[in-house]
Amino acid sequence: MPDSVKFDSQGFIISTQVHSGQVLRIDPRSGERTVLASLTPGLDNVTFVGERMFVSNISGYIVEILGGGKTKDLVPDGLSWPLGLAMDSNGLLLVADGPFSYTIPKGGERRLAGMLFTQGYPGYSRGAAAAGPGEFVVTTANGAVARYWPLEERSEVLASGFDQLYGVAIAPGGAVIFAEQGTGRVLSVQSGAVETLVTGLRKPSGVAVGADGTCYVSESAGGRVVKLSGGKAEAVLDGLKKPQGILVRGSLLYVADVGSKELIEYDLAKGTRRSIASELPVGAPPGVVPKVLGAIGNLSGPMGPFAGLAAGADGTLYVSADAEGSVMAIRPA
Q: Which of 177, 230, 258, 293 could cysteine-pair with 282, CB 3.0–4.6 Å?
């Protein structure tokens, strides 16, 4: 899958291959190919400075091709735009990074789970929820809700055709609940049946379900977290600036407020609130209004920001620091 083509000073075609990660030199007279380097999938451009050759990847890294199959890192690989997070019962953390997804085992290193051009990838992923050991549910920018087994490179679509999906959570009975920001709805799907739970929300973003089955939703444009009951939304926590990712642990509700750049803890039983982390690298810099990126053909629908949250069994909270391309671990005092 060639996605960039340039001529070098000797008249050879240099082309990056987005699917295989190869950098090819092609003789335009004979069609003969030479592999200059084998990198990771996601290559997206090649350019020259004099005789020096540089290649970039969708994930953000830049390398220099030195010859003889050798390369030199200029900008190291990392996360480009971490979104949804989910941790399974074995401590495996899934990081939805848009066109890429990564898994991080407990105490282990980050591993590429899949990307737009690999087998079994559900698509540009945004929201994420753990469904079982090695099993997750994700929402995609193409408007689908999918079950995803990253270690098996396998996925299946549960429902599709929605407008700008964001957070997702799984109810105790197995229903998958998700936020459709484009229409201001929250819906559920179970056994192929889709049900609308509530309408009229102001940019619903994060979704969380408590142990008792109560569903909570953050309204990023409404500055509040609501709970759903009988087709209506009742405010639980307001006065927020731009809440996105949320999660519930026992009686505690956690909110990533990208407007104030805080991680907020709210006790649902006592009605008390505290900030457990501030000045987080989430959201846009002060004075900058982020714009939703448009669709890229059939690869991705509209792309928007989402600072996701996840929690480990030991109480550690994980936050998508989308402003710097990292995942932060926060241990509440």
A: 258
